[in-house]
Write a structure and sequence with these properties.
Layout lengths: L2 H10 L1 H7 L24 H31 L3 H6 L1 H19 L10 H11 L2 H13 L5 E8 L4 E8 L4 H5 L2 E7 L6 H4 L3 H8 L5 H11 L2
Antiparallel strand pairs: 1-2, 1-3
Catalytic activity: 2 superoxide + 2 H(+) = H2O2 + O2
Function: Destroys radicals which are normally produced within the cells and which are toxic to biological systems.
Enzyme class: oxidoreductase
């Protein structure tokens, strides 16, 4: 089987189609729209700095290194290597995507959902408070490491609460468009909340940038 055939097969899968389309563009660590200290006391400065500069940056570096290897493998028609790189692309690419969304939807000055998003939350969950309860429950229940998500289903036009393991990115994994995610890897909270994940999850709603979440909802629901 040639590398060209393998590439065509990869393009058929939503996740791999996403990354094959970005093969010529390297990932970069996004700048935050607030200072590391600004989310205190909900998220400490130390956690924010380590989470952004160390953990997220590691995903960026490893993703870019994997892209370099993939480009070399494609050029050499090295089918085995192309296939073997898929897990690293998924893990590190997913880590970069997930964290980029995470930072974009946090703010020191939490706002309220737009009228359209609030209406959708009520239609799909009964109330905004019930939505928060369901997302918190799903996030706390993640076994090991992963994310809790509010996603938009482009087929049914409904909002859904769901969780993903590890760094699996929401859209390639489920077909849901990510609106807001809660990182429940221990590096996101352990220095401050220790082993009490529930306290961290329930507190994070105090720093949600609902303007950003509402914008994502508006763009997804077009």
């Amino acid at each position: 089987m040639s590398a060209k055939i393998v590439q065509n097969m990869l393009k058929c899968a939503p996740f791999n189609r996403l990354y094959m389309s970005q093969i010529r563009s390297k990932a970069t660590l996004p700048c935050l729209k607030f200072e590391y200290k600004d989310l205190e006391p909900i998220i400490s400065r130390d956690i924010m700095e380590i989470h952004h500069q160390k953990h997220h940056n590691t995903y960026v570096v490893n993703y870019n290194n994997t892209l370099d290897k993939l480009q070399t493998a494609v050029a050499k028609d090295d089918t085995a290597t192309i296939i073997s790189l898929s897990p690293a692309l998924k893990f590190n690419g997913g880590g970069h995507i997930n964290h980029s969304i995470f930072w974009d939807t946090l703010t020191p000055h939490s706002t309220k959902p737009s009228d359209d998003l609030n209406k959708a939350l009520i239609q799909n969950f009964g109330s905004c408070d019930e939505f928060k309860k369901q997302l918190a429950t799903a996030s706390i229940a993640v076994q090991g490491s992963g994310w809790g998500w509010l996603g938009f289903n482009p087929q049914t036009k409904k909002l859904t609460v769901i969780s993903c393991a590890n760094q699996d990115p929401l859209f390639p994994t489920t077909g849901l468009i990510p609106l807001f995610g809660i990182d429940v890897w221990e590096h996101a909270y352990y220095l401050q909340y220790k082993n009490v994940r529930a306290d961290y999850v329930n507190a994070i709603f105090e720093v949600v940038d609902w303007d950003a979440v509402s914008k994502r909802f508006s763009e997804a629901s077009i």
